[in-house]
Amino acid sequence: MVKKIIKSYDYSLIIVVALLSIFGLVMVYSASLVTRYEVPSDFFFDKQRLNLLVAGMFFIITALFPYKIMKNTKFLLPMVVLSLFGLAGLFIVGKVANNALSWIEVGARSIQPAEFAKLGVIIYLSAVYAKKQSYINEFDKGVAPPLVYLALVVILVAVQPDFGTAGIIFLIASTIILSSGMSMKNIMKLVIIAACLVAPVSLVMKDEIFSETRINRLTSYSDPFADELDTGYQLANSYYAIGSGGLTGLGLGQSVQKLGYLPEAHTDFIIAIIAEELGIFGVGFVLLCLGYIVLRGIFIGLKCKDPFGSLLAIGISSMVGIQAFINLGGATGVIPLTGVPLPFVSYGGSSLLQMAISMGILVNVSMFVQYEEKYKPKKTQATTSVQTEASGQKFNFKS
C-alpha cells in the first residue's frame, strides 16, 4: 500500500517546484547584494534560505496530508474563522508597509494574512461548490451563499488598502466559479450583482482607489520615460535591465541596475535582474517552470474525478498563473505595477510559504488521481438476466 502511494506521487511537479525555488534563492542572493537598506549583503539571502526550509517542511506535510479531509466542516469552519480574524486583526495590530496595512509582526518575522486568505478562498469555494453539485444551478441555495465569505475577504483586503491582492483573490475565485459547473445564466447574475456592489464601494473609497500614487502607476506604465526620474523611475530601470541582458545576459552577479538603480530588485522586479544577468535563457527557464506548474495543475484538475479535488487543482494553478502574469506584466510594462511577487522566485516569507502549502495540496491531489488510475480496481459491467414470472420476458440489467 505504502509503496503504491509513493509510486503515485507526481515527481515531475515536485522537481520543477524545487528547481524554481532554488533558482529563486540564488537570484535573491544576487539581486540583494546591494540594497537601499542598511543590512549585510547576505541579509535577504539568509532570511530567504530559512523561508525556503520552513516552506519545504510545510510542502512535505501537505503533500502527505489527504486533501479530502479539508472539505470536512471541522476543517473548513476553523479555517474560515482564522482567515477572517487574521485580516480583521490587521486593523488592531497591523504594520504599515508600502502604504498598506498588510503585515502582522510575530517576533522577528512578519506575516501577510492576505497571502493565506488566497488559499483559504480556494479551499472554501472548492469544498462548498463540490458539495452543491446536485443543485449548483439553484441560485439562492447553490450559488450565492458561499460568496458571502469571498465578499468579506475581498473587502477586508481592499480596505487595507491592497487592491492588487484583492483583485487577485477575486480573479482566482472567478476561475473556480467558472469551473464549478453552474449555468451561464447564474454566472451573468453574479456579474451584475458584483457590478452593483463595486460601484458604490468605488465611490466611497474613490480617494484611496484613485490616489496620486495609483494614478501615476496607470499613466507611467504606458510611457515611463516621459517622467523617468519620478513616476516612471521603476519601470524605466526595469527596461534598462531587461534590454542590457540581451540573449545570454551579463553573467550571474553582474547586474548594474541592482546597484541602487532599480528599487526592490529582489522582490517585485527580480525578473528584470534575471533578464539582465542570465538573458533570455534565465527568463525562459522561469517561464517554462511556471508554465509547467500551471498546465500540470489544470491537467490534474481535468483528470480528477472528485469535484473537490478538481476545483482545488484548477484554483491553485490559476493562482500561480494569475500572480505570475501580474508580476511579469508589471515588470515589462504590459500592465500597471501592482507590487505582486513572482511565485517561488521573489523574496518573501508569506508568499513562499503559502505557495509551498498550495503545491503540497496539488501534489496530494495528483497522487490520489494517479493512485486511483493505477491501482484502484475498476468496476466491471456484469450483465444479469432476470426472468419475470408474470410475462416470461427476459430483461438485462447492467450493474
UniProtKB/TrEMBL annotation:
PROSITE patterns: FTSW_RODA_SPOVE (PS00428). The keyword Zinc does not apply. It holds the Pfam family FTSW_RODA_SPOVE. The chain crosses the membrane at residues 12-30, 50-68, 75-93, 113-130, 142-159, 165-182, 187-205, 269-295, 307-326, 346-369. Keywords: Cell shape, Glycosyltransferase, Membrane, Peptidoglycan synthesis, Transferase, Transmembrane, Transmembrane helix. It is found in: Membrane. Peptidoglycan polymerase that is essential for cell division. This is Probable peptidoglycan glycosyltransferase FtsW. It comes from Mesobacillus maritimus.
